[in-house]
């Protein structure tokens, strides 16, 4: 591992935060200008107003970062991906060069934290939940290139008896409340691992950036972000079920409406967002409201309400990992609440103590002056 400071200097970046960098997030390597990000501890969420002029793919410079600890700057020459366990006949250890020589494909896919929208449990539903108080910016869409995981698992001779794959990251072990939970890792059922999962080494046509998993990460389309393990170092394939704190303690729906040991969080729920800041000021007159909606398997119908009573269809602008849309609005001076709904997004999200999967329609306040 080379030092973070060394990398910043090598990249010609100043080590002292410039004035445009709002809050220090020493866990993240890339710059976090206040115009594009809201920093929450070791994490940074994208401001939706910063996506207004972005295309369907979120540029790396604006892509949210969720780090349990901090971005490791890994040496690709020393890096190996190990595939081992009772579920494979031919354990493997691949260098980056060997990985890149395998058949690859590219997919456009959203990565979204299970806790995206968590802050609305309290601000909109009056419920208190634990975890990073994300607004709606813990999501991004990118084009990922890499080796399909089924290709790697077959190369390692996956057995018919295999049930789980445990990807583990090479970032530091995660210590919380004085307990060391070990490397960030989370079991993935073989059924999903053999479906549409990618071991990605490129993001938006360039090498994977340090903060997003360099030199390789999983991309698990449609599933909560924790499935897409960054800085991938190993894949244990097992013929008995595997567990980690990330499937037994975190990423479970817990609370009065769930079984005592909770229910496992796997796929995401649909969401919609306007490309506007919360409480943004909008000029009076004819405006075009823009936004994006997404969900596992895509979204079909997007409706917008500007008066809390009536709904109009928005016009799709582009499809892909998510759907961009627009709708005209005759904005009159005063306070307004905008709402966008994709398909069957509910008005209320089921409560769970850790605030996962907030999928309700969000009330977005704006002021027209
Ligand atoms: N090794 C490792 N992988 C990880 C994480 C992490 O902290 N360490 N965070 C996970 C979580 S919770 C999310 S939401 C996504 C975020 O991906 P991004 O930072 O590239 O946006 O990475 C996942 N993969
Ligand atoms: Mo996450």
TrEMBL record:
What UniProt keywords are attached to this protein's entry? Signal
Q: Which GO terms describe its biological process?
A: sulfur compound metabolic process
**Highest taxon above the source species:** Bacteria
Q: Which Pfam families match?
A: Oxidored_molyb (PF00174)
Q: Which residues cross the membrane?
A: none
Q: Which CDD domains match?
A: SO_family_Moco_dimer
User: Quick check: keyword Signal in the entry?
Assistant: yes
The UniProt entry, under InterPro entries, shows: Ig_E-set, Mopterin_OxRdtase_euk, OxRdtase_Mopterin-bd_dom, OxRdtase_Mopterin-bd_sf
The signal peptide, as residue positions, is 1-22
**One term of GO molecular function:** molybdopterin cofactor binding
Q: Does the keyword Signal apply?
A: yes
Q: Which residues form the Oxidoreductase molybdopterin-binding domain?
A: 68-246
* Protein name according to UniProt: Sulfite oxidase
Organism encoding this protein:
Lentzea aerocolonigenes (Lechevalieria aerocolonigenes)
UniProt lineage: Bacteria, Bacillati, Actinomycetota, Actinomycetes, Pseudonocardiales
